Amino acid sequence: MSDRARHPPRGLIGAAPAPPDDFVAAGPELRREGGFPVGWLIAPATLWLLIFLVLPLLSIVVFSLWNTREAAEELGFTLQYYGEYFIAEGFFDSTSRNFLSTSIFIKTLGSTLYFTLVVMALCLLVGYPIAYFLAMQVGSFKWQMALFLLCMVPFWTSYLIRAVAWLPMLGRRGLLNKMLVGLGIVDKPVGVLLYSEFGYTTALVQLYVVLCIGPIFFSLAKIDNAILEAARDMGATPFQIFREIIVPLSLPGVAIGMIFIFVMLMGEFATAVVVYGGKTSTTGTVILNYYAIANYPFAAVNALVLMLAMMIGVVIILKLVDIRKEL
Amino acid sequence: MSKRGAKTERGGKGGLSRRQFVGTGAGAVAAGALAGGFPAIVQAADPVRSIGLGVSVINEIQGQAAKDLGFPVRGQALGYGAMFGKMLNQNEQYEIAEGYFNDMDVFQPAKVWQPIDTKRIKEWDKVTNLCKTGKLTPDSREGQGDAPFRHLWLDENGDRANGPSRYVSMVPGWHNADSIGYNPEETGRKIESWAELFSEDFKGRVALLNIPQIGTMDAALAVEGMGLFTFKDKGNMTRPEIDFLIDFLITKKKEGHFRAFWETFGQSVNLMVNGEVALESMWSPAVTAIKAEGVPCVYAFPKEGMRGWHGGLAISAKASGKTLDRCYDYINWWLSGWAGAFVARQGYYMSVPENVKKHLEPAEWDFWYDGKPAATELPDPFGTIIVEKGEIRDGGSYWDRFKNIAVWNSLMDENDYLVKRWTEFLSA
Known about the structure:
The structure holds two protein chains of two kinds.
Chain A: H1 2-6, H2 20-32, H3 38-65, E1 66-67, E2 76-77, H4 80-86, H5 104-137, H6 141-152, H7 159-164, H8 166-170, H9 175-182, H10 197-208, H11 210-221, H12 225-233, H13 238-266, H14 270-274, H15 283-292, H16 296-320, H17 323-326
Antiparallel strand pairs in A: 1-2
Chain B: H1 3-23, H2 25-35, H3 39-43, E1 48-52, H4 59-69, E2 73-77, H5 80-89, E3 96-100, H6 104-110, E4 113-114, E5 116-117, H7 129-132, E6 144-145, H8 149-152, E7 153-154, E8 167-168, E9 171-182, H9 184-187, E10 206-209, H10 212-225, H11 239-254, E11 258-262, H12 265-273, E12 279-282, H13 285-292, E13 298-299, E14 306-316, H14 321-335, H15 338-344, H16 353-359, H17 362-368, E15 378-379, E16 385-387, H18 398-402, E17 405-408, H19 415-427
Helix pairs in contact in B: 1-2, 10-11, 11-19, 12-13, 15-16
């Protein structure tokens, strides 16, 4: 009894938490048993994050304000680059083509966001059934793991190789076109497969879907079979079980997967270059272009706004699903 | 003093101490070692560090230089953006900048490089007039934009000098002229004008270079070729000119005229090899790479003239004393021919052709410089055979090619505006 009080259950996700009193008792005890004080334990990570995350972030903020480009007499700070980002040139000028129009950079961020949302939805549509099949339909644990690893195999190669691999698949002389011509569906190769919205979206879904299969699979696998049996015993239809038990219980996995995909896609630029032939701008490519002409302040502004947009997105996802509670 | 200048000044402290170390030779090295805290300085005691693009910074070249000169030469090849940034902001991190004349509007006022004394360039007299006067041959046209001769001459303080003087910004090096590459089987006809880039016949089978500064110039040459518009200076467009061009490009893009926009050499090769495009703006070494894949490819020699670019060797403002001597040694070595022959086998030209000739086989010289059919099969710099016997280089001889440069790669005054509108074009 006292033993249990001193060592609250650990390691079992979802096990009932011990009463708060026990924790109070356990805290100092653990420390006395020879561990480092918590402060020391987190010191390396804190230091690491401070040097490699916080400082660079701060320097980006400083850069975004730095007036380094014009032939200013003194090193100065300016909000000019933020102005350029948000307000199109000629915004207040009724004779200008840009009168009261949204700046190209906000438009680009908007289209980046739009593509991100579309691809997230498609990833969920494709990824959820796969995860469901793995967790619910495959009986043996061994097979579950084997199939899950199979899902991961393409991800053992580099990201770029996976993107480039779409070229021989979708190109004019690609596999798909050969098939279409061979089957007589089209009489000459079609160009819409590659360097098109279609090709771009397809590639993005394939590149990122596994990021949501994983978390959804794990949250589905955690669902206690007894709950499902109980529901069945009480006469629930399979659809009811799915809607009222499985979906709610898998939401944390969905949320985590969506956060991964959202953050990765918002920063995406390489696929746009490789699979879309550079025929679109994303905020990522804008940052690259401005970096290339050594306009660091403006690249920094773009990076910061992008980061802000990502944070807002993540917060919204977390508001929709309370991961802490659900886990 | 510009802010950038101020930055350089502050960075100057480290440079000063290195200058002292290097200046007093071995004793200084020992002192540096004793001083501790400056391991990088001790390590870097003597090598000449050179940065640039993969065009001129190649292990074999700097390796050969080190062998011939007897001191270490360390090359670092970077992407364009990284190179540009490092050259501008970290001139204590290199001694030699293998830069490009079209960026001189940024580097010259920043004074990150020191004026080079032509009296210390042994074969200065042998350097052709392409960069000195803008005319390789007396009947050459100078070309619009950042032609090297407009950025070459400086006074001893590093300010621009009018016309020939004793000091230069960079010692002219490797250069070439770009145009359109095409697959004759796909186009069905010879391409002789930039205007073909926007021909309805090739709708959906065209790729442009996705580097705003250069892509717009190719497009401008095409628009002029079509007789749609005449730019006052394609190398330095005004806002209305940029607007006209980008609006035209946006219309074309919405019609589905472009198959893709390429950013890297490899992409341009793949686009043609995979049959995605019939013609595209291209860099000349791509032709060889495409042919090597068994796909026919011809480099056009448009009647409007080609788009030229020119690289060269600059010395960091931080280099001095013995290091500075070695910088001059390295530059003199570049002009002496071996390096020029190396890059010739990749299709680039060098500012002292007569020295290059000494290091090339006669058959190589005839093919690469004289534009004659290859008498034998010819290798690239690494020994792979890339030219078949009897093959002929498109565009004629070096002198024919460079007497008709329409425009040079340039950095426009309205560069920021250009990039902004280019972003709009890509998003459209």
